[in-house]
Specification:
Lipocalin, nine-stranded antiparallel sheet, mainly beta, 398 residues, 27 strands
Length: 398
Amino acid sequence: MKRRSIILVVVLALLGVAVVLTWRNTRERRVATPTVAPPTAASAKTNAMPKNDVSSANDVAGVWEGSLQVQAATLRLVLKVNRAAGGGYAATLDSVDQGAKDIPVNTLTVSNRTVRVELSALGAAYEAEINARATEMSGQWRQGPLSLPLTMLRTTTPSTVASPLPPAAYTRRSDAPLQGWWAGALKVRDTSLRVLFKFTSPASGVYQGTLDSLDQGAKTIPINVIALNAPDVRLEIDAIGGHFEGTMTADGSGIHGTWTQGGGNLPLQLQRTEPVADAPVPASAYTFARELEPQGVWNGTLDLGQTKLRLVIKIAKLAENDYRATLDSPDQGGRDIPATSVIIKDTDVEVEWKALQALYHGQLEKSKLIGFWQQGPDEFPLELERTNRLSGATKPLQ
């Protein structure tokens, strides 16, 4: 077996290192130099609970929020802790600025005033000391070769992953020339990454917006700075350390400029596009009449030695010889990552995600796909089992 050091399958879930839009070669192992996070708006609004709301310094049940800082990227993390029925704790993590929700925490332990949180799917651990009132924990977030300071405060008003607005909120207006949807693509070596910027103007001269990285399954990434000094446009996205500067065309149909991230620059041309509601794949597209048909919802576990990752590949048949597929990585908070291509030949199935430099190749054997997952130079066996049966369970997993 080849190198097992690459344990994170979904790029967007690698907190603080491989941010969503990255053009670094996966063979390169350059690591950003960590910097101490300054106070953030997230931490400023995270209010400690009153003393009488906390039973003891060993009680960490509740919601905690803090921010990681890696170079120009700022990532808000929300840790949600519940008491487990059999004792101890159960927890999940949200990476708010990456749109990743409910990433499972494998273990959370408290010994005296030391809290340890482990997320094996991310190769990450957080160890911190909790204060006497159990309102603050301060320590180090470790992931791969990185060790970053992280302070989390107990809060009753945590940041949440942004919910998408309806298309009507982006209808073009003469008094808000930037409002609407703007689509483009970044050429990253031999890969094209589609991006979609969405801007709305709740008040005159004020804009709010989000970024979707369509081929990486990352949606509603907050845009922190939106500045329009016609015809010049400037955007800053803290969660991925991204920056865009461009010039709007005279007719308001395009913005031509440069995307900057991680010390690199790429040309980026945005074109205005009509806002449309997402058309969900009908449940009927996952149904099948024979066990050797590829459409369906396929679940499996990728065994990477010390880490196991659940994967869900959903294959839909929209018409004869027209297949589409998406990928979920539940343990990393990744959902509905669209496949670049789906090739079906007899019982041979090949699904590729170019933005992740990933491919799955399998052979249909009754209700199973027997094959391998390949990502970059690494290859791992992966057996998938269909979870929607001929008995009528035709809806994809939620």
